[in-house]
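Q: What does the assembled structure look like for these inputs?
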Amino acid sequence: MSRRKTTVLGLLRAAPTYAILTLLGAFMLVPFLWMVTTSLKPSGTTFSYPPDLIPDTFDFGNYVNLFTLAPFAKYVLNSVVVTVLTVVGQLAFCASAAYGFARLSFTGSKSVFVLFLATMMIPFQVTMIPLFLIVFKLNWVNTYQGLIVPGISSAFAIFLLRQAFLTIPRDYQDAARIDGANEFTVFFRIFLPLVKPALATVAVFAFMGTWNDLLWPLLIARDEKMRTVELGLAYFNVTSSAYEQPNWPLMMAASVVSLLPVVLVYICAQRYFVAGISLSGVKG
Amino acid sequence: MSSAVQAGAVLEGRAPAGDRPARRRRRRRSERVGWLFILPATAHLLLFALVPIGFSLYLSFHEWTSPSFLGAPFVGFDNYISLFSDDPFWHAMWNTAYYTVLSVPIGMAVSLALAVVVNQKLRGMNVFRAVFFMPVITSWVAVSVIWITLLSPDAGLVNYLFDVLHLPAQNWLDDPHAAMFAIVLINTWKTAGFSMVIWLAGLQAVPRELLEAASIDGAGKWRQFRSVTLPLLAPTTIFLVITGVIGGFQVFTPMYVITEGGPLGSTDVAVYHIYQRAFEEFSMGYASAQAWVLFAVIFVVTLIQLWFIRRRGESNLI
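A:
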């Protein structure tokens, strides 16, 4: 059989698959295309029938209005502050705890770890009311601490990082100790660099979870100045639908802006997204 | 800082191996170091997970009606007893079960189909995988905004498509019979890529030799899939069913943003109901009791599923 023949045959055989893939891809992508093109229609435009997927002229006014009519820049800033600090906090808290659980032996370590795993089973709804009351009592409603502190540690991240630390051979630890390194040096200089992929996975998940979260900011950011992008977007919808049609093109522009950072991170760190999901699938 | 600590460790580490007090001191030191590493996260766990869990139980036995209200009256099991005759709550629980029963199988079937299609060695497959994953990274709020307009009865893209296909137009989000179904479809679109990745990991663990052997025995593609691949995917299936059911019972955001529990309470699910009781009516004690009942239901349903799996002799899978 000649090489060329197999290629042609392969292409013919692959054609139906590509057709199916393209159709499915269209199902996934058309809503996004719709979002982008609608955001480029003049503000306050109502939809026409039949729907025009691609408008005749592109109007970037919504993207300007977003920042002049609404305090959207403030929302973005809030989201950035809350997300960055949550990610940094989770990395610091969870990496050190995971290292302690995986590589250091001390009394009580096992029982505390089991306690961490047990809390993963309690759903957020059970803790959300008392958590809100605690934050309220601390006078943290409408503050960055209120938005950030409850989320800076995660049992799942500790679990994931502990698994990563466990795969490293014991010799690394021993060799460094013989060379006179203490536990903190071993942790920072040797173990942390070795689990970079797991750290990236945790960072990506913490980023996505925090940036896209609605429920917690909804409870804590009562003041407009403290709203995150997601909350701002949700309020555009909830408040406007009560007495008038929402300004759809403007909301689509806001959606595009809210999506951009996530898409950027996804493009840069695609394999860590997938790694995190595969890991979450393995843990069952 | 690190150099000073390091010097101390070197000095201490020099103690001869047979020196007992030194060894004990070193062990005590390593105990301290271990706790030092887990202390921040453990303190956080205590304050923001364990205390709230205990506090939540406490709340559920009190008539707590304001966020700043301290010294609320103890009401015993009253909150739990009132629950039994609270029809709107059970209506919400029923809606939650309906949503779960509808969304889990549909989501699993669609994502498995995606995984099978994507699990082929073809040029450009990574692009398709990335495309199918796009909705996963999109927030529920943005997804909601997009789909409210796509499902708009008179100008939405979906009804236009229905019109082209000569199907009757639907009043997707305003019809009490259609709204929950619409949310299930949106959920499927949003989460299929996530389950696809998990299925894909399962599919790639299927040994090629087994499929080849089946093919030599005369099994067609479909037969190979049904008799070889599918049984080998049992652990993935079980994982997706159990986590899917747990997640289904906790659904909130689409109901909050898209339908606000409506129309006519047809999408009022448990968490949305609890949210409203707690943060719009400020019946925080009563809402806490509802949250515990929801947790108990999830717990029992999960146990029943595990029992079924055990009984079918697949206990080694969990």
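The mean pLDDT of chain B is 86.
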